[in-house]
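Email to the structure team, subject: Leucyl/phenylalanyl-tRNA--protein transferase model.

Hi all, the expression group asked for a predicted structure before they design truncation constructs. Nothing fancy, just the tokens so they can compare against earlier work. One-line instruction: predict Leucyl/phenylalanyl-tRNA--protein transferase, return tokens.
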Amino acid sequence: MILPCVDGCTEFPDAKQALQDPDGLLCFGGDLSVERLKNAYAHGIFPWYSVGEPILWWSPSERMVLPPAELRINRSFKKTLNRLQPVYHLNRHFDRVIECCARIPRKDQGTWIHPEMIKAYQDMFAAGHAFCLEVEVDGQLAGGIYGVKTPRVWCGESMFSLQSDGSKLAMHGLCQHLLAAGIELLDCQLHNPHLESMGARLISRTEFMTFLK
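Reply from the structure team: attached below.
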């Protein structure tokens, strides 16, 4: 199958046309403009590619998601929260958060947050369509997360940890904010055992799209 190219417009093919192998690869090309990224996330599509590749757009058949109310907090983590007394900051230093995520790659995906991606999400943040959260312990940065906002679903792009449980603390702070804001779902995109241990689960693309709509 020849993948469609999306150069010259901001519209995407129907996500149902995504390949089964590799799972979710939908199309290529285009750019990372704010308008195109807004349209992508509104239709359950996200960019993921390496330097030297064309921009690749994905919508996997199964989506890793976490309803904020279902964040799993075991007894050990409750003790950690009580002991550390973390302080959360929403949308304070987006540049610092995304640069920390870029410097600390995911074990299963390598370094994919390259300069072009950083600039694109900085533009999204400036336009009010992206978010970041930092967590501090004893006045020191411990972890953080950034992503994209849609009306009912927030999409977590990447998170980082500078100390033990730093990313868990960031996820806890974000879920507390989402609950207060009435956001129904945190999109975690791809399966991740760490996120699964915190309560995230896989749902079908079709079910995910019902949340977006």
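Residues 50 and 112 are 6 Å apart (CA to CA). The helical segments are 34-42, 75-84, 94-103, 115-126, 166-181, 193-197, 205-212. Ping us if the truncation boundaries need rechecking.
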